Amino acid sequence: MEQTEKQIGLQDILEGMIRRKYLVLIPLVFFIMLGAWLYFVLPRYYEATTLIIVQPQEIPSSYVESTVSIPIEERVRTLSQEVMSRSHLERIIMEMNLYSDARQKGTPMDILVESMRKNIKVDIGGARGARNQVSSFSITFRGRDPQKVADVTNRIASLFIDSNLRLRAREATETTHFLENQLANLKKLLEVQEQKIKDYKNKYMGELPEQLQTNLSMITSLQTRLESLQSSLSDAMDRKLLIQQQLGQEGGATPVATLSQRQQKIAELKARLEDMRTRYTPEHPEIKMLEEQIKGLESMPEKKEETMLSPHVVELKNQLAAATIEVKSLQKDIDNIKSKIKYYQKRVENTPKREQELAGLTRDYDITQRNYQSLLDRVFEAKMAESLERRQQGEQFRVVDLALPPQAPVSPDMRRLALISIILGILSGAGLVLLLEYMDTTVRSVTQLEQWTGGIPCITAIPFAPTTNDIRRQKLKSILYIGVIISIVALGTWGIVYSSMHHIVVDIPISRFL
Questions:
Q1: Count of CB atoms within 10 A of residue 229's CB?
Q2: What is the spatial distance between Cα 443 and Cα 172, in angstroms, rounded to a whole number?
Q3: In this structure, are residues 240 and 327 in contact, taking their beta carbons and an 8 Å threshold?
Q4: What is the pLDDT of residue 290?
């Protein structure tokens, strides 16, 4: 017959625990007494908590918008790192004489600072206000002295409040300085662009888009004047041709003679005078000068060769000379007008190009100007926000209730310690029973026998009949187990009483979690 491996189920374990009840009671009583002794000898830890609310700024944000945009959660985390830095915690340890025993023993300050940092808890999971932002958070400090625990908690809370004020003021100032620097740079850029536009307009004055209508009006006026001059030129040329024909007719009847230089000069001056009178007033200096020159020439005595011609021929020749001068003057004026028309036409032709180039400069200038105005408004708002923070009228942290010395310790927790002791005792007893069941080869039921023999059915079973020696041996074991239990209780009670009388404190690493 092949024996199979013994299998133990939950039912077997429970039956074994009932059968070996003393083996379960001994570790249970041991751990209970150990837990009771630990409760009396473990150090008492107290916790003090203060609640800090986030008070909104006094002036509505619709009038003054704060420049501190860091969320409360992130700001509290930043302040936690600052407040719980080594310099701050070391100063608190020295000022409040914390960990005096450890410092006298020469414990390094780094270890004390780290221990204090672990005892500080900042809970930012409090109530939430508008925009789902945290409206409050709590600060908790754990220690052995109730009064010092409360004092340290209040001191840490004051550090949070002061650090928050400094942080907000610093951020507001930095924001203002940053915006002012950006504004100065933008102002320089704006001045450069303004100078570019000014230089461009000075360089292409007359070809600018706003001068297009003026140029067109000037071209229209010049064309009208050109038509008038061309008409006058045509009349002057016809008149000159008529005079030449009359001179030709007079030349066949009288001896041919030429005008003297004086007469020609007078005729030229008179023609210039007539031309000047059409453009200037009689008081113009050039008109007066021409009149004086004509008077001077006319007052000169007539030369001999001039008496050779008839007065009519002389008059015709003077008219011819005047007409010639007039034609030349009109032709000159026409050329001048045509040159001006071309000049203004070139301006008009260049206007679309100048408009496109100026549009690019103006577009950049307008964008820069809008940005400058927007940034100027933001600088003004930032200065108002900075003034608000400096006057401490912005968003602040305020302590609702100061931390008071706690009346009862939070560690060790009797219920938690008792629960842990009972669980350890039961698990230890169950483990011991399980081990003994595995080592025990006794068959205690028909089912267990059939399982152990590989499924061979059992025909009949003879019940166990204990002898007198078995009964006596069982009683001795029970007395021994009861004695062990009584000894554990007595020893534990003595340890508790002794430790309480001598104020024995056992500080183990896990004591603050019990």
A1: 22
A2: 84
A3: yes
A4: 75
pLDDT higher at 57 or 292: 292
Q: Which residues of 433-457 are buried (b: 16+ CB within 10 A; e: fewer)?
A: beeebeeeeebeeeebeebbeeeee
Buried b (16+ CB within 10 A) or exposed e, 121-140: ebeeebeeeeeeebebbbbb
Q: pLDDT tens, 73-90?
A: 888 888 888 888 899 999
Give 3-state DSSP helix, strand, coil % of the chain, rounded to 5: 70, 5, 25
Which pair of structure tokens corresponds to residue 64?
């003054």
The whole-number pLDDT of residue 310 equals 62
* CB atoms closer than 10 angstroms to residue 7: 9
The span from the CA of 480 to the CA of 485, in Å, is 9
Q: Are strands 136-143 and 46-55 parallel, antiparallel or unpaired?
A: antiparallel
Q: Give the amino acid at 358.
A: L
**pTM of the predicted model over 0.90:** no
Whether the bond into 406 is cis, omega within 30 of 0: no
List the beta bridge partners of residue 53.
136, 398
Domain residues of the chain, as ranges?
10-42+411-513, 46-182+382-401, 209-379
Nearest to residue 411, comparing CAs of 31, 145, 46, 150?
A: 46
- Alpha-carbon distance 21 to 478, whole Å? 10
Identify the CATH class of 46-182+382-401.
alpha beta
Q: What is the pLDDT of residue 149?
A: 93
CB 364 within 8 A of CB 193: yes
Three-state SS at 55: strand
- C-alpha span between 482 and 336 (Å, rounded): 140
Q: What is the pLDDT of residues 162-219, one digit of tens each?
A: 888 887 777 778 888 888 898 899 889 989 988 988 998 888 888 888 888 988 999 9
Cα separation, 14 vs 18, whole angstroms: 6
Higher-confidence residue: 498 or 309?
498
How far is CA 471 from each of CA 19, 381, 390, rounded to the nearest angstrom? 15, 97, 91
Block residue for tokens 């150090």: 43
Read off the pLDDT of each residue in 506-513 and give the average, rounded to a whole number. 66
Phi, psi (deg, nearest 5) at residue 39 = -60, -35
Two structure tokens written together for 387: 């003034």
E strand residue ranges, 39-95:
46-55
